């Protein structure tokens, strides 16, 4: 069993607003073609595919891949909420590492609908049904869409517990806009100040403005992973590897004692990160770039602490000291993150992989993190699933 799995090629299309994007078949197929071109191999060299999406009928993965070719490979469709793309990558890596296949495709795509996320199955229990009362119990004083109540509630809890100010979340959003300005694939490239974010439409007084939440978008991204032997045989680049990876679901402390910070995945992220640090032999002090799940600015701050980038309760000082950007301890979301790219659920995890692959190759242009050898990815799906991945230069 090989310890390292090579990221031989990545592809990503620009994300777009719902209603103006191509179909998921077109988006998915184009991301695959870009990844194949980047890897320098033909589709018939791919031996297996894992295709991630949340909103779609069964076998959408095959439908997208049939636009690329008909090679009879096994195609497995993946749905793990917002961590779907990274779960597809997790499965692709596992297939290569176990020797089941030498070259595997991970694809993520999403054709989103406008507006707040919602269930499309109203005649059965919703996900996390047995513990959903926690949100009602702790945020029942506000009438807001579920996602805003959930992540805004976690942010408010951090504010109440540690004295974190709303301006700190606004500063995280402003930082994201500065990073996105150098990313041609970011949907929102306008540079914002902390004051701009604070003066935007208020969604939750004292807690959140509209700009602190990522918008739904449509898009696709893909990665080709392979064994070192396959890369050598076919003359593929092997300078970026996956060093370690974890996929965890909710531990008991996500729900007991009741806490919004716990409910939004803090302990999933913490446990997943610790597993990856142990597997790889690297710790948070070694990480200089991280793509993390900033579906809300509030969750970015919580994730700093969960990943061990700063002490628990130290997220605000981490931001105030500029440790989350260029010139600081670790560049968080050099791509601009979900806050600037948007969040097509099935594609997000593989878009993070795309960014970190280019960062480790040294091909990220104006947003390049200099001297990068180790990079971390965090992708969260409530319900729950959290994937943490450690990438490195080979």
TrEMBL record:
Name of the protein: propanoyl-CoA C-acyltransferase
Thiolase C-terminal domain span: 268-384
SUPFAM superfamilies: Thiolase-like
Listed PROSITE patterns: THIOLASE_1 (PS00098), THIOLASE_2 (PS00737)
InterPro entries per UniProt: Thiolase (IPR002155), Thiolase-like (IPR016039), Thiolase_acyl_enz_int_AS (IPR020615), Thiolase_C_2 (IPR055140), Thiolase_CS (IPR020613), Thiolase_N (IPR020616)
Primary location: other
Species of the source: Pseudomonas fluorescens
Compartments, as annotated in UniProt: Peroxisome
Start and end residues of each Thiolase N-terminal domain: 5-190
């Amino acid at each position: 069993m090989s310890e390292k799995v090579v990221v031989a090629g990545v592809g990503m299309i620009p994300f777009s607003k719902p209603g103006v994007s191509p179909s998921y078949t077109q988006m998915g197929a184009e991301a695959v073609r870009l990844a194949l071109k980047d890897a320098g191999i033909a589709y018939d060299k791919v031996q297996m595919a894992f295709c991630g999406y949340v909103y779609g009928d069964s076998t959408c993965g095959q439908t997208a891949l049939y636009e690329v070719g008909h090679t009879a490979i096994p195609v497995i469709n993946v749905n793990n909420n917002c961590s779907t793309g990274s779960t597809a990558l997790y499965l692709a890596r596992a297939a290569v590492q176990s020797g089941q296949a030498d070259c595997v495709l991970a694809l993520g795509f999403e054709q989103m609908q406008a507006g707040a996320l919602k269930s499309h199955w109203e005649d059965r229990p919703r996900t996390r049904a047995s513990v959903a009362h926690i949100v009602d119990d702790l945020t029942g004083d506000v009438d807001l869409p579920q996602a805003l109540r959930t992540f805004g509630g976690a942010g408010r809890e951090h504010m109440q517990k540690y004295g974190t100010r709303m301006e700190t979340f606004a500063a995280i959003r402003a930082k994201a806009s500065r990073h996105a300005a150098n990313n041609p694939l970011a949907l929102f490239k306008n540079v914002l100040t902390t004051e701009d974010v604070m003066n935007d439409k208020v969604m939750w007084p004292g807690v959140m403005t509209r700009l602190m939440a990522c918008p739904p978008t449509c898009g696709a991204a893909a990665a080709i992973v392979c064994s070192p032997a396959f890369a050598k045989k076919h003359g593929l680049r092997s300078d970026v590897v996956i060093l370690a990876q974890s996929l965890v679901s909710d531990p008991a402390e996500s729900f007991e004692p009741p806490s919004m910070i716990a409910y939004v995945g803090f302990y999933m992220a913490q446990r997943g990160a610790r597993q990856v640090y142990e597997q790889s032999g690297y710790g948070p002090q070694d990480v200089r770039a991280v793509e993390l799940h900033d579906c809300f600015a509030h969750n970015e701050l919580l994730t700093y602490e969960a990943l061990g980038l700063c002490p628990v309760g130290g997220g605000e000082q981490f931001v105030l000291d500029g440790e989350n950007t260029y010139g600081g301890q670790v560049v968080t979301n050099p791509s601009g993150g979900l806050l600037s790219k948007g969040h097509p659920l099935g594609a997000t995890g593989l878009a993070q992989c795309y960014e970190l692959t280019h960062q480790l190759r040294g091909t990220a242009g104006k947003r390049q993190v200099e001297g990068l050898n180790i990079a971390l990815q965090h992708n969260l799906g409530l319900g729950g699933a959290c994937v943490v991945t450690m990438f490195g230069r080979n």
